[in-house]
Amino acid sequence: MGVIENVPVPSPVKFILNWGRRYSLWVMNFGLACCAIELIAASTSKHDFMRFGVIPFAHGPRQADLLVVAGTVTDKMAPALKRVYDQIPDPKYVISFGSCSNCGGPYWDSYSVTKGVDQIIPTDVYVPGCPPRPQALLHGIIKLQEKIAGEDIREKWSGQLTAPSSGP
Amino acid sequence: MPETYYETYGVVLAVVIAGVGLVAVALLTARLMSPHRPLPEKLTTYECGIDPVGEGWSQSQIRYYVYAFLFVIFDVESVFLFPWATVFERLGYTAVVEMAVFIGILAVGLLYAWRKKVLEWA
């Protein structure tokens, strides 16, 4: 166990590993509001994010690589979101989809809405819009794949980027 | 070159060996390369993010036992009867006797169900 952490990995192997990981992202659907409809639309035949290697939808967090938070995260929902994120095995990625999960969006002065999902879990890509169109999610997925392609695999494997914090 | 009856199973054996080998290599590679970081949060039962309540075991209505019982009797019987019916002429009396023994064993099960009065609906 732990070949990547303990043995120096040659660059071609890293390239192949990152190439394989970026085109096989099992997505966990965390749809909370109207953005979830756009996320589902992106998964169906018209926009079809499966052609980018994003596989809809993982049955649970243990099968997932990518968590798409689509919609309004409330302070009451936040612990559940954090638990789902913690249950996804490393290496894992998060796309924040829509203004609400980016920063609170139209609920910027609400008493109950979490102003940005990145307060709870580390976020890789933010997709703006209210709600964003499915094409925007496709763009976000391509951005995430570019990020994975250029990633330091040992840093990602170390778990420092995804370690659980003390919680919300 | 014509193959004997048992030689034709060589293909099945080769497929089994290749299948087991492929899965073993894939699982071993994943085990060697993947990060392994168990946490208390990660190891809890997945209940959509909230704490699990109660246990995984639950009771179901005992009357479903009857359906399960009868289903197994007739399901297993038909699964073997249909392929048997296509070849029993070639295999001769041995096949007929073997199938009679098989149906006899299942008939004992049906007899048992009858004695237990599970065949009485309404």
What does this molecule look like?
The complex is a heterodimer of chains A (168) and B (122). Chain A is α/β, with parallel strands linked by helices and 168 residues long. Chain A is 37% helix and 13% strand. A 5-stranded parallel β-sheet of chain A has the order 2-1-3-4-5. In chain A, helix 5 (99-103) links the parallel strand 4 (93-97) and strand 5 (125-127). The mean pLDDT of chain A is 89. Chain B is mainly α and 122 residues long. Chain B has helices spanning 9-33, 40-43, 64-91, 93-115. Chain B is flat.
Rg of chain B is 25 Å
Q: What's the mean pLDDT score of chain A? A: 89
User: Which regions of chain A are unreliable across 5 or more consecutive residues at pLDDT < 50?
Assistant: none
Give the termini distance of chain A in whole angstroms: 32 Å
Quick gist of this model?
The complex is a heterodimer of chains A (168) and B (122). With 168 residues, chain A is an alpha/beta fold.
List keywords for this structure.
heterodimer, A: 168 residues, alpha/beta, five-stranded parallel sheet, 5 strands, 13% strand, B: 122 residues, mainly alpha, 4 helices, flat
Q: Secondary-structure blueprint of this entry?
A:
The complex is a heterodimer of chains A (168) and B (122).
Chain A: H1 3-6, H2 11-22, E1 25-31, H3 35-43, E2 54-55, E3 66-70, H4 78-87, E4 93-97, H5 99-103, E5 125-127, H6 134-149, H7 153-158
Parallel strand pairs in A: 1-2, 1-3, 3-4, 4-5
Chain B: H1 9-33, H2 40-43, H3 64-91, H4 93-115
